[in-house]
Amino acid sequence: MDFSNYIFLFIFFPISILGFLLIPKKIKKYYLAIVSLIYFSLASLESLPILIGSIIINYAFGIIIDKTENKKKKIFLIIGIFINVATLFLYKYIDFIISNVNSLLHTKISALQLILPLGISFFVFQNISYLVDVYKKKTDMEKNIFNFTLYTCYFPRIVNGPIVKYDSFKNEISNLKNPSLDLFYDGVKRFCFGLGKVLIVSYVLGNIWTKIIEAMNSSGITALTAWFGIICYSLYLFINFSGYIDISIGISKMFGISLPENFNYPYFSESISDFWRRWHITLGAWFRDYIYIPLGGNRKGNVYIHLMIVFILTGLWHGSSWNFIIWGVYNGAFIVIERLIRDKNFYKKIPIYLKRCFTYLIILLGWVLFANNGLKASMNYYGYMFNIKCPEQVQYTLKYFLTQYNIFYILVGIVIALPIKNYIVSKIQNKKIIEILSGIFAISILAISIIFLVNSSYSPSLYAQF
Q1: Are residues 221 and 394 in contact, defined by beta-carbon separation less than 8 angstroms?
Q2: Burial 154-168 (b: 16+ CB within 10 A, else e)
Q3: Which residues neighbour 243 within 8 Å (Cβ) at sequence distance 6 or greater?
Q4: In this model, does residue 321 exceed pLDDT 70?
Q5: For the whole model, what pTM was predicted?
Q6: Interior CA angle at 248 toward 82 and 272, to 5°?
Q7: pLDDT, tens digit, for every residue of 50-85?
Q8: Residue 391 pLDDT exceeds 70
């Protein structure tokens, strides 16, 4: 059940919020745990046994790791991590492995075709972090299974993230109560802005990208159209994902729960390293804390190998396809190159605006691998971008896509993607005017979003598949 569909927006969400505000304080977290399980059941009933199994197993292993003697703790930690990784591997990667084995060895092993459980990459990573933190005594073992259930399947976060450590989430729910009016108001505004990004801007930009792909598959496209298309996709991907994160954070504020930010204007980055500190921040932090540092980080071993491992795994996390693996290697290679040259004088002398442009270009070229369905399709798209593929007659030129309507939403997308709003707000002295205008704007965005939704516009979460 997506955040941008009728059932969620007009039935599930209002009832959930109203119930939370009316019930006694002492049962609020139990209420949220039950509501989250109901949400998961409505969204993916067939995945519910896997989720419940994951909750029970990780809850039990947290207790076992905490209560076991020091010498045996690590054994149970390894077993717990193995179960989590094996679950993720079975449901997300096994058919990819089988397909490659069949291609390589000319065998005919049948694919399992298991249904990918909703949000599995998110809740598996969170549960691994919980077990590791209990082992390292960075967080206390959870005795209350309702608390742990809420942590694992908290519905605003289960599908799109952000990824949260147990200790910080437990602090949020330890004294759960009705939010202040200011916090609730902030949550409503964040929810409205996120909904607008998803249902309006993301929808239009996604449509442009889809039509360009259709044009490419029918009669081919020009190089300019190909470049225009991937720029639209880059805006579409960011606005779609960050919009869903805005909705998650907004809903959580209405419940009195704070979730961490997941984006910080990534297309304004000065380097690829900077980009990954700004894009999907909580995923990057997870890989840093639970993969990069345990490997040795920049203290032990070969830092370049550690970085490449992290980014190959980052690519794999996003999908069971060679596209994503190569995309991870691509990003990792540029991270390594940056480390090799970052202290050189010539690099330090490059103007920041050139670094930002060059960084965006590198990210843009990488998104081709991310956007297309399969390696062959990606190579085909690169062919059009660099004029290697030159169709004799193109039915839809760039001019066809440069309508006033499309240009308007591309400009809106650019304004959202860059810190333009922050700059304007910083110049306004009267903060009360900002509050009033932002409230009016939020209500307007909500109204327009509903109109788009009624007109059958729908922009599903791109990250729900992960």
Answers
A1: yes
A2: bbbbbbbbbbbbbee
A3: 194, 195, 196, 197, 198, 201, 202
A4: yes
A5: 0.92
A6: 70
A7: 999 999 999 999 999 999 888 789 999 999 999 999
A8: yes
**Which positions ≥6 away from 109 have C-beta within 8 Å?**
98, 101, 102
User: Residue 320 — very low, low, confident or very high, per pLDDT cuts 50/70/90?
Assistant: confident
pLDDT average, residue stretch 277-291: 95
CB atoms within 10 A of CB 391: 12
Minimal CA–CA distance to 223: which of 405, 394, 414?
Answer: 394
Instruction: Give the mean pLDDT of 342-347.
Output: 89
Instruction: Give mean pLDDT, residues 158-186.
Output: 91
**Do you find a cis peptide bond into 162, omega within 30 degrees of 0?**
yes
Residue by residue, what is the 3-state secondary structure of the chain? CCCCCHHHHHHHHHHHHHHHHHCCHHHHHHHHHHHHHHHHHHHHHHHHHHHHHHHHHHHHHHHHHHHCCHHHHHHHHHHHHHHHHHHHHHHHHHHHHHHHHHHHHCCCCCCCCCCCCCCHHHHHHHHHHHHHHHHCCCCCCCCCHHHHHHHHHCCCCCCCCCCCCHHHHHHHHCCCCCCCHHHHHHHHHHHHHHHHHHHHHHHHHHHHHHHHHHHHHHCCCCHHHHHHHHHHHHHHHHHHHHHHHHHHHHHHHHCCCCCCCCCCCHHHCCCHHHHHHHCCHHHHHHHHHHHHHHHCCCCCCCHHHHHHHHHHHHHHHHCCCHHHHHHHHHHHHHHHHHHHHCCCHHHHCCCHHHHHHHHHHHHHHHHHHHHCCCHHHHHHHHHHHCCCCCCCCCCCCHHHHCCHHHHHHHHHHHHHHCCHHHHHHHHCCCHHHHHHHHHHHHHHHHHHHHHHHHCCCCCCCHHHHC
pLDDT the model gives residue 193: 94
Whether residue 464 is predicted with pLDDT greater than 80 in this model: the reply is no
Residues 6+ apart with CB under 8 A from 164: 126, 151, 157, 259, 260, 282
Residue 457: pLDDT band by 50, 70, 90 thresholds? low
